[in-house]
């Protein structure tokens, strides 16, 4: 029963040197993200970032069926990147993974570095890169925003799954060839990516409908040069 | 700080609604979650036949998951999204998880945030 609710990589799947290497990469990157995130955190966005983190924790619990006998769940990389930016987003997913590992015994302790690199770094930044590339559609219409969120989430999910393939190729335990792991990981995560895309689009769409100023991707969009903007970016409260 | 502005009240209302959605998802919707292995577990279990035994799961065949080790905190009070291993407690575990996460993340982001400077 125990493993059926586990959602992340356990200890022992990759060897100690690989775990150490990715642990070090994770620590360095998360530290860098904490420095860069400060620029995106203020009195308005900090509480939002806290709630987005809790929301990702909650939605990750909801495994949805993808094939008979196989399920998937949200990773959340593109979702957090679009809502709170990639640097804060890396911290959000890292917090979720730490809480899951320490409190819920989901995701191994030595595997924390690999899980952070895959979901909090690759998933977040791949999703953000795609979202930025498509931002001109996202700012144009609601449909464009939903499509951008879907594609960014799909790409982030598949690329995050490739992180595991790389770690397995580097120092994976026996039991399956790297080719088999690659084919299965990408195939399954292409299906999971569809669910990830739908959840991300629905969530981003809901936030944008009521509080577009809390969508980082829209808020940080470059302003068209022809339009003169009043100084400052106040939220209209006059405060 | 003086009385909150209209925008401030609107903001708190949005944040409270967001928290409620997370609590409903973790506390209620979690009972509907699929119990099939997720993408990664499906890959690591590939090649094995899983049978439930009183001693736990038995993996017959050859698969990556045979090399997985037990979680060092696997006997913790909330391990495997249950409260003390109790059946049907996933919703309570989920609510605890949401509250712990929002406090931890909210506190950390509050510490990291920029104070509104005169140039902002």
UniProtKB/TrEMBL annotation, chain A:
Organism domain of life: Bacteria
UniProt-listed InterPro entries: CbiM/NikMN
Transmembrane segments: 12-34, 46-67, 79-104, 116-134, 146-170, 182-210
Keywords: Cell membrane, Membrane, Transmembrane, Transmembrane helix, Transport
Location of this chain's protein in the cell: Cell membrane
Cross-referenced Pfam families: CbiM
Signal peptide from the UniProt entry: none
GO biological processes: transition metal ion transport
Topology with respect to the bilayer: Multi-pass membrane protein
Major location (coarse): membrane
Gene3D superfamilies, sorted: 1.10.1760.20
Keyword Oxidoreductase: no
Assigned GO CC terms: plasma membrane
PANTHER family: METAL TRANSPORT PROTEIN HI_1621-RELATED
Protein's name in the database: Cobalamin (Vitamin B12) biosynthesis CbiM protein
Organism of provenance: Pseudonocardia dioxanivorans (strain ATCC 55486 / DSM 44775 / JCM 13855 / CB1190)
TrEMBL record, chain B:
Keyword Transmembrane helix: yes
Family annotation (InterPro entries): PDGLE_dom
Any Gene Ontology CC annotation: plasma membrane
Transmembrane parts of this sequence: 90-112
Subcellular location: Cell membrane
Residue span(s) of domain PDGLE: 13-114
One Pfam family matching this protein: PDGLE
Swiss-Prot/TrEMBL keywords: Cell membrane, Membrane, Transmembrane, Transmembrane helix
Superkingdom: Bacteria
Protein name per the record: Cobalt transport protein CbiM
Biological source species: Pseudonocardia dioxanivorans (strain ATCC 55486 / DSM 44775 / JCM 13855 / CB1190)
